[in-house]
Design brief:
mainly alpha; two-stranded parallel ribbon; 4 strands; EC 6.3.4.20; Rossmann-like_a/b/a_fold; ATP-binding
Length: 209
């Protein structure tokens, strides 16, 4: 949400891509629809891609979402190569639409340690995009913008407030409760709650814990 808002602020037309990968937290698809409508993006595509066929993650397999806080290892909520897959699809749409700019909201400060959120990944994908596309082969440049990469969660919350966005419309929880509330205990919920608390801002998310 904040990433799209920043892109609009910089004067970009926004084509919003959401991947329905049959994730456990499918409520985020509804949040994406709400946000895309609120921002008035030019087009919003929800693309089906069933990563449950591969599994290997608590978000796409019968594996419990951990609720005991962050550790030193990459957690089981990591979806194998997810951001690589997502950016590849975004690149394909961007090239078809005549765009040379991709925006992704990855963060490498207050995060769960996923390898596909690091600056090295973003830089590597940008290099790959140059050799993998018609745009690149004709001398053009594809730029991958990651405006949230070096921001703390509190700073991202502050940016949402500055842009006039309703943070409660966004979704972070990996393991929603049956009644629609966020669990409040998974890594994503913990990081989100701590960020809003540090920023001194109200988070409109309904938590179960």
């Amino acid at each position: 949400m904040v990433c799209a808002g920043l892109a609009q602020e910089q004067g970009y037309r926004v084509l919003a891509l959401t991947i329905d990968y049959n994730q456990r937290h499918r409520v985020e698809l509804d949040a994406a629809r709400t946000i895309a409508a609120r921002l008035g993006v030019e087009r919003h595509v929800i693309l089906p891609l069933d990563l449950r066929q591969f599994g290997g993650s608590a978000l796409t397999d019968a594996i419990d979402v951990p609720k005991d806080g962050l550790g030193d290892d990459i957690p089981v909520t990591y979806v194998p190569a997810r951001n690589l897959v997502f950016l590849s699809l975004a690149l394909a749409w961007a090239e078809a639409a005549g765009s040379k700019d991709l925006f992704i909201g990855v963060n490498a400060l207050d995060y769960s340690g996923y390898p596909d959120c690091r600056p090295e990944f973003i830089g590597g994908f940008q290099d790959l995009a140059r050799v993998a596309t018609k745009i690149g082969s004709e001398g053009g440049t594809v730029t991958v913008h990651a405006p949230l990469q070096h921001l703390k969660k509190s700073e991202i919350a502050q940016e949402a407030a500055r842009l006039g966005l309703e943070a409660g419309e966004s979704w972070s929880c990996y393991d929603p409760l049956p009644d629609g509330r966020a669990c409040g205990e998974c890594d994503s919920c913990r990081l989100r709650k701590a960020g809003f608390a540090e920023a001194g801002l109200i988070d409109g998310t309904r938590y179960g814990a």
